[in-house]
Amino acid sequence: MRIIGGLFKSRIIQRVNLESTRETSDMVRQAVFNMLNNRIEGVSLDLFAGSGAYGLESISRGITKAYFCDNNSAAVSTIISNANYLKISELCIIKNLEYLKMLDYLENNKIIFDYIFLDPPYHFSDIELLLERINCISKKGTLIILERNKNSELISNLKYEIVKEKVYGIKKIVIYKKI
To answer: Is the pLDDT of residue 18 over 70?
Structure first.
């Protein structure tokens, strides 16, 4: 697995290599960042981060600070290792927390994001709750990139509009924009 574009283009990053973690392929990440017009700015959140590929890619393409969260300690160790390898640890806030505790932490600290990458396990069923909860850590114009199984239903929410939706193999990428 590698960084696709930006400052760290072509640099190889580690995978988590756990059955419970499914890494997003380079091709799909490239497509996602193409949908985001490649260069992005501000602060990002990589929730359900796994190896941290989305957050690391976002830093490579211009994000000034990225928050990462995963509830698996092996995944968190992988993110730390990848950030150290790229020499960007100072731009990364990495937490080993269950996602609701992370959202509480972010809300309590009034941290607001420009980009939120959500790649929960395919069996995750609380997408509506998740979209509701991230409302407090987003602002008008925040883009939420949600990766789901291609057969999952689109979730509509009055606080977000669906900007783009694409299917790549078994994955569906939906990009929401906060209204």
So the answer is: no
